[in-house]
Specification:
- The structure is a single chain.
- The chain has 512 residues and is mostly helical.
- Helix content is 63%, strand content 1%.
- It has helices at residues 3-12, 27-31, 34-41, 44-50, 61-70, 74-87, 95-108, 112-125, 132-142, 149-154, 167-183, 187-195, 202-218, 225-235, 242-258, 262-269, 282-294, 298-307, 320-331, 335-348, 350-357, 366-372, 376-395, 399-458, and strands spanning 466-467, 510-511.
- Helix 19 runs parallel beside helix 24.
- The two termini are 42 Å apart.
C-alpha cells in the first residue's frame, strides 16, 4: 500500500534533505550592519537618533568586556561589546573578536538567535581570518537546536569558500552545499560535495541517507533490493543519531511492505528503538498493525489498535486506524461492529471533513493544524518560531542592563526575525495541511465504501436450498488464560503486547 511511502518515508528525511524556503527578509537586517537594521525598523525619531554620529569610546572597553566575560559575567560584557562594535570601524583589529565574544555572551544568556546573527555577520564580512573558523564552529553547534535555516544553513554554510576551513567545519559545509544541490535536482554536483566528506564521519552517513531518499523520491515503481539493503546498513550506523537510525529502519520496513515482504517488514518494525520512558510512536504501531493484518495476525493487529486508544495517543491524527479496525471486523463477519468502526471516523472528524468540503481555511481546524505542524519542515519552522518567542520573552529581563540603544536594537531584531519565521511557518503549514486533508478525504472515501459493503452483507438474502448452522456459544476464558483484567490501563512497556480476543462469526452454508 503506497500509503506508507507517501505519508511517512519522505518525511523521515526532512532533517537531512530540507525543502527549499524563501529568502529571509532579515538577510540584511539580521546579518548586516546593526545600525542599518535599527534605522530600517525604527520610527522617524528613533531612526534619526540611530543615524547620529557614533560616540567616542575608550578602546580599553574591549579589555574590560573580555575580563567580564571570562570571569563569568556575560551580562556585563554584552553591552560593552555592543558599544564597541557599534562605534568603532570594522577595520579595527579587535572588531571581529568583539563580535565573536558578543555572540558568545548572548548565547550564554540564552539569546541564541541574536548570537547567531553576530556569528553570521563574521562569516559574511570576514574582517579577521583568525576569527572565522571559531565563529563557524559555534554556528555549527547551534544547528543541533531550532535555528534560522536560511541564515545559517543556506547563507553561511551553503555559500562558503571551502578552501581554507578546518576539516570538521569544511565537512559540514560540504554536507550543506550538497543538500542545496540535491534540492535543485543536481545529483552530480551533490555527489562531488559528498565525496569530499571524511570517511566515517557523521556527515558522510547523513549524506548517504539524503542521497538514498532523493533517489527513492525519483524512483519508479520497482525499487531495487540494493536500496533496501543500503537503508538497512545505515540503520546500524552508530554515527547517526537514534532518530536518524530509526528513520532508516522504518524506511526498510516500508519498502519491504511495498514489496509484499510482510514478514521482513514486521522484523524491521521490531528493530525500531525508542528512547527510555518514551510513550511510543502512534504511526509505528499503526503501520505494524497493517503489516500484521496482511499476515493474518488479526488478534495482534487489533491489540495494536487498542494501544492507539491510550491517552498519550488520543490527539494523534490517524484516520486509517478506523479503516483497519472495520476491515478486521468485516473479515471476521462482525458486521455491526465493522459498520460502527467505519462511522466512527466520520463522527470524530466531522468538523474537519466539513471544513474541507466547504473550502474553509484549513489552518484554523484544530486537528488538521496539529497534524500538519508535526510534519518535517513545518515542525522545524514551528519549533524555531517557539524558540524566538521564548528568547523574546527572556530579552525583557535585560532591559536595564543592556541600555536603551542595545535593548532597542535587540527588540527590533527579534521582531523582524519573528515576522520572517511566521511567514516561513505559514508557507510550510499551508502545504502540510493540504497533505493531511487529502489523507483524511481518502480514508473517509474508503470507509464509506466499507459501510456500503457491510450493509450489503447485513441484508444479504440466504440462498434457496441452504441451511444455517447454529452458532456455537463461546466458552468464557478460564482464569489461567487471563493475564490480568483489562481496565483501560496502558503501560509503555506493554503497548506492543496487547492481544484482542475476537473469534470469527463467519458461518459456512452447506447445501442440502
Amino acid at each position: 500500500m503506497k500509503r506508507f511511502l507517501v505519508f511517512s518515508l519522505l518525511g523521515a528525511a526532512a532533517a537531512f534533505a530540507q525543502e527549499p524556503s524563501a529568502a529571509a527578509t532579515l538577510a540584511d537586517a539580521g546579518v548586516g550592519d546593526a545600525a542599518a537594521a535599527a534605522a530600517a525598523a525604527a520610527p522617524n525619531g528613533a531612526a534619526a537618533a540611530t543615524n547620529a554620529a557614533p560616540k567616542k569610546i575608550d578602546p580599553k572597553i574591549f579589555d574590560s568586556a573580555l575580563n567580564d566575560y571570562f570571569t563569568g559575567h556575560p551580562k556585563d560584557a554584552a553591552p560593552k561589546l555592543f558599544d564597541y562594535t557599534e562605534n568603532l570601524p570594522s577595520t579595527d583589529e579587535n572588531y571581529a573578536w568583539a563580535q565573536f565574544f558578543l555572540a558568545k555572551s548572548l548565547i550564554e544568556l540564552n539569546l541564541r538567535h541574536a548570537g547567531a546573527v553576530y556569528l553570521a555577520r563574521i562569516a559574511r564580512e570576514r574582517t579577521n581570518p583568525a576569527v572565522l573558523p571559531k565563529a563557524l564552529e559555534e554556528l555549527q553547534k547551534l544547528t543541533d537546536l531550532p535555528h534560522d535555516e536560511v541564515m545559517i544553513d543556506e547563507q553561511v554554510f551553503g555559500a562558503l569558500d571551502l578552501g581554507f576551513l578546518p576539516e570538521e567545519v569544511a565537512g559540514y559545509a560540504h554536507y550543506q552545499q550538497g543538500l542545496v544541490d540535491l534540492r535543485v535536482g543536481n545529483e552530480r554536483w551533490a555527489t562531488t560535495h559528498f565525496s569530499k566528506l571524511p570517511e566515517g564521519s557523521a556527515e558522510a552517513s547523513r549524506a548517504k541517507y539524503a542521497m538514498l531518499v532523493t533517489r527513492l523520491r525519483t524512483a519508479k515503481r520497482d525499487i531495487p533490493k540494493e536500496m533496501v539493503d543500503q537503508f538497512f546498513e545505515l540503520a546500524k550506523d552508530e554515527k547517526l543519531t537514534l532518530e536518524a537510525r530509526n528513520d532508516a529502519v522504518l524506511a526498510v520496513a516500508r519498502l519491504r511492505y511495498e514489496q509484499q515482504d510482510f514478514k521482513g517488514a514486521l522484523e524491521a518494525y521490531g528493530l525500531v528503538k525508542l528512547p527510555l520512558l518514551d510513550t511510543g510512536r502512534a504511526t509505528l504501531y499503526l503501520e505494524e498493525a497493517w503489516t500484521r493484518y496482511q499476515l493474518g495476525q488479526v488478534h495482534a493487529a487489533m491489540g495494536l489498535l487498542t494501544t492507539l486508544d491510550a491517552p498519550s495517543f488520543r490527539e494523534e491524527f490517524l484516520p486509517d486506524k478506523y479503516l483497519l479496525k472495520a476491515l478486521i471486523y468485516r473479515d471476521l463477519c462482525h458486521y455491526l461492529p465493522a459498520k460502527r468502526s467505519a462511522k466512527e471516523l466520520t463522527r470524530k472528524y466531522a468538523d474537519s471533513l466539513e471544513a474541507v468540503r466547504e473550502r474553509e481555511d484549513l489552518t484554523k481546524d484544530a486537528r488538521l493544524l496539529r497534524a500538519a505542524s508535526a510534519r518535517g519542515n513545518t515542525k522545524r519552522a514551528k519549533k524555531f518560531l517557539e524558540a524566538l518567542d521564548l528568547e523574546g520573552e527572556q530579552l525583557g529581563r535585560f532591559a536595564g542592563t543592556f541600555g536603551d540603544r542595545m535593548f532597542g536594537y535587540m527588540t527590533r531584531l527579534y521582531d523582524l526575525s519573528r515576522a520572517e519565521g511566521q511567514r516561513v511557518y505559514t508557507e510550510r503549514l499551508n502545504e502540510s495541511v493540504r497533505v493531511e486533508a487529502d489523507k483524511l478525504l481518502r480514508a473517509a472515501e474508503q470507509v464509506r465504501l466499507m459501510e456500503y459493503e457491510v450493509g450489503l452483507k447485513l441484508y444479504e438474502r440466504v440462498k434457496r436450498g441452504s441451511k444455517l448452522v447454529a452458532l456455537i456459544e463461546e466458552e468464557p476464558l478460564r482464569p489461567e488464560q487471563v493475564a490480568f483484567k483489562f481496565v483501560d490501563e496502558y503501560w509503555n512497556d506493554e503497548l506492543r503486547d496487547f492481544r484482542f480476543s475476537l473469534k470469527s462469526r463467519c458461518i459456512e452454508e452447506t447445501a442440502r
